[in-house]
Amino acid sequence: NKQVTLNNYVTGFPKESDMKITTGSIKLKVPEGSKDTVLLKNLYLSYDPYMRGRMSKLDKPLFVASFKLGEEYSLIQSPQLLIKILDTNVPLSYYTRILGMPGLTAYGGLYELCSPKKGEYVYVSAASGAVGQLVGQFAKLVGCYVFGSAGSKEKVDLLKNRFGFDDAFNYKEEPDLDAALNRCFPEGIDIYFENVGGKMLDAVLLNMRIRGRIAVCGMISQYNLEKPEGVHNLMQVVGKRIRMEGFLAGDFYHQYPKFLELVMPAIKEGKLVNVEDIAEGLEKAPSALVGIFTGQNVGKQLVVVARE
Ligand code: NDP
User: Of 138, 129, 146, 147, nearest to 110 (Cα)?
Assistant: First the structure.
């Protein structure tokens, strides 16, 4: 058996050497007194930015605790958090992305928090990632004008040509984000789906419309900083009466059946596409995880451990 464990708590950008791959027989210890423990066979591993927080030593965790150094993670002790897969007519890996946590995040943050209407102007940052690519497509389904940003030409092309965004820009080539957004949204932004934070959020605030809505999903640009950047333009929230609301995917788990009713037919009719970036084998796990913080992944980052 192989396992990947964390060697040490991380400060700054994570490195592959922060993790260790070991081979040998692994003893899974069920904690005493625990009932309903489920042992999972891992097929696909989902790599998500929130895992960075778990790699730090957190005295006051925001919503998930730090990983324990060297610990193994295949025992699930809260089986109510597991979702039974009912429809197997789609690839299994869809349940880690469009039909899983990233899908529900995009759905809840956009539809439930921002109530987009036809013709509204929507901006999505980190738009080629697992969540962003779906937010843009969900916004297009209701007839919004959608603009996204990403960190390479390849990703910008993907946004425009595969995901149907109206337009997109490479934020690494346009350091004046305020000017870029001003050009893209001459009439301002109605809805901003926040994935990045920092300078991006500051620039967006300057370009929001009156009574705009911001779904605060994450701030990946801040996760590896020892001291987070400040946000300077928050007064815009007051003057423009902007509603900013944070949320977690888990807030919408109870809506999963409703979400499936919307998404499953759209997938089958080819109205929603989703791109994944698959690394083969557990040996690739450390580089895959590190890569999402440098933008190496194109689409949802997965590691395939076994096919069945
Ligand atoms: P992915 O792992 O699919 O993609 C991450 C992408 O973020 C990278 O490919 C990179 O693309 C971009 N990125 C990395 N560093 C920076 C940076 N410093 N500045 C700008 N962009 C950067 O991400 P997800 O779609 O899974 O997650 C997107 C956001 O949503 C994250 O902030 C995450 O924490 C949050 N999230 C929140 C959830 C919730 O429940 N609230 C649930 C799931 C995700 P590029 O090449 O474009 O830079």
Answer: 138
E strand or H helix at 13: none
Quick one: pLDDT at residue 73? 60
Q: Whose CA is nearest to atom 43 of ligand 1?
A: 102
Q: Is 152 in the pocket of ligand 1 (CB under 6 A)?
A: yes
Confidence check on the interface: ipTM exceeds 0.90, yes or no = yes
| All structural domains of the chain with their residue ranges | 2-88+276-304, 101-250
Range scoring the smallest mean pLDDT among 18-22, 118-122, 162-166: 18-22
300 Cβ inside 6 Å of ligand 1: yes
Nearest ligand 1 atom to the CA of 198 is 19
Q: Is 129 in the pocket of ligand 1 (CB under 6 A)?
A: yes
| pLDDT at residue 20, rounded to an integer | 93
> In the chain, what are the helix, strand and coil shares in percent, each to the nearest 5?
35, 20, 45
Q: Please say whether the structural domain 2-88+276-304 has been given the CATH code 3.90.180.10.
A: yes
* CB 202 less than 6 A from any atom of ligand 1: no
Judged by DSSP in three states, 292 sits in coil
CA–centroid distance, residue 282 to ligand 1 (Å): 22
- Is a pLDDT exceeding 70 seen at residue 74? no
Atom of ligand 1 nearest to the CA of 249: 40
Mean residue pLDDT across the chain: 93
Ligand 1 mean position, distance from CA 129 (Å)? 6
Pick the CATH number of 101-250 from 3.30.1360.120, 3.40.50.170, 3.40.50.720, 1.10.10.10: 3.40.50.720
CB neighbour list of residue 33: distance below 8 Å, 6 or more residues apart: none
